[in-house]
Design brief:
5-stranded antiparallel sheet; alpha+beta; 5 strands; 7 helices
């Protein structure tokens, strides 16, 4: 098993994925459930929600996204958009990340002094959940990337899969067996980004 630092270093955005998988559906669900269970949240709110779309349901998500973008992207620019969406659909599944706003709103009522913070903390815990699942998939040699078509597709997705009204869509993570490695990544000077105070 890789140590945490190695896993962190190797996790990358992988856009060239296939419908193959290095792990079973059962293992995918195990990763997702354990990640949801153990992700830290402010006030132990446990507001994260996840929908896992596999096979035809995964394909349907990217059909919905394609339809939504076709309605707003000029025809002369749509070929490039379609190519990008097709690359996501080439995967074997997509994970939809949600935050349950009913939980957030309840905490805002119970702890009004922190009212403005709870939506921020909700987003932070969602980011942690996304990172844990993404890194866990990477350890299993699965490729993934993080996408944000939220406002364009949220209502259609809610209708298609009967998502609770109070669940707010945060991100989409298409995943699959990589067909090519990620390119080189450039890094800013880390010493300019980190400050040590004694």
């Amino acid at each position: 098993m890789k140590d945490f630092v190695e896993a962190m270093q190797e996790r990358r955005s992988i856009y060239t994925i296939s419908k193959g998988s290095t792990i079973t559906e059962e293992r995918i669900m195990e990763i997702v459930k354990e990640s949801v269970k153990f992700t830290p949240t402010a006030f132990n709110s446990q507001s994260g929600r996840v929908v896992v779309l596999l096979q035809k349901q995964h394909d349907r998500l990217w059909e919905i996204t394609r339809e939504a973008l076709r309605a707003i992207v000029p025809e002369e620019n749509f070929a490039r958009t379609k190519e990008k969406l097709d690359s996501f659909q080439e995967g074997c599944g997509t994970i939809l990340f949600y935050e349950d706003m009913a939980v957030v709103e309840t905490l805002q009522e119970q702890f009004s002094i922190y009212k403005d913070n709870f939506p921020v903390w909700s987003q932070q815990s969602s980011g942690i959940l996304q990172y844990i699942i993404w890194t866990s998939l990477s350890i299993e040699r699965m490729g993934a990337s993080l996408q944000h078509y939220n406002e364009l597709i949220e209502e259609a997705v809610k209708k298609e899969w009967k998502i609770p009204e109070k669940w707010k869509l945060i991100a989409q993570m298409p995943f699959g067996k990589p067909t090519a490695a990620a390119g080189e990544k450039e890094f800013e000077d880390v010493d300019a980004r980190v400050k040590l105070v004694r």
